[in-house]
Amino acid sequence: MDILSLQNGTDVRGNALPGQAGEPVTLTREAVTRIASAFCLWLKGRGFARPRIAVGHDSRLTAGDLTEWVCEGIAAMGGDVIPTGLSSTPSMFMLLKDGFGADASVMITASHLPKEKNGLKFFVKEGGLESADVRAVLTLAESLPEPCGGGTVLPERRYIGTYAADLVKMVRKATGKEQPLAGKHILVDAGNGAGGFYADLVLKPLGADTAGSQFLEPDGS
């Protein structure tokens, strides 16, 4: 496998379903588990003897498979995994700042790309991995040592509710008002992605009228 070809700037991107014009699946189980193992190994090289890594995903159809494979790869290289279920990309960084108990995180997403695509984004407490760091992880993935095992996939811990509540607190603190959006009518079109929670969990508690918002339910199709 040419794992290095899956790099797209600071992300990993590829086909998780057959693509247009018969494009092959490139985010195979082997590729994803190797990349996840390599990220765990890269973290060990940064001083984490047994990395604890949170793993979240958006609403794509392939999210379940990729989550399973990422967890498998991390555990195979001796890391512990905390699955967070449906998540937003910013939440996967913020949980590292919020006492969640993770050393790093992986977000399974391909942002705005078509439904057959998927990918991985990597975070440490200092921020998202830079392009050179991602290349280092993928280089490790192409020549991994034998898995050491011993890692654990812990029970799922959802974080998106906590993240939304923290956003509400931040806005209230910044404005000095309980409902600073009272009197405002704000429509949300979440495109059936992972961001539909903003309407009910962020905007409404801040006083906004969100009637007429659409496509709030996650739907990878």
Defining key terms:
7-stranded mixed sheet; 221 residues; globular; alpha/beta; 6 helices
Task: Report the portion of residues in β strands.
Answer: 15-25%
Q: Output mean pLDDT.
A: 96
CA(first)-CA(last) distance? 28 Å
Number of helices: 6
Instruction: Summarize the amount of helix as a percent range.
Output: 25-40%
Compute the number of strand runs.
7
Shape: globular
Q: What sequence of helices (H) and strands (E) makes up the elements?
A: EEHEHEHEEEHHH
Q: Segments where pLDDT lies below 50 for 5+ residues? A: none
Class by alpha and beta content:
alpha/beta
Rg calc: 18 Å
Account of the 3D structure:
- The chain is α/β, with parallel strands linked by helices.
- Helices cover 32% and strands 16% of the residues.
- It is built from six helices and seven strands, in the order ββαβαβαβββααα.
- Strands 1, 2, 3, 4, 5, 6 and 7 form a seven-stranded mixed β-sheet that branches.
- It starts with 6 loop residues before the first strand and ends in an 18-residue tail after the last helix.
- The model has no long low-confidence stretch (mean pLDDT 96).
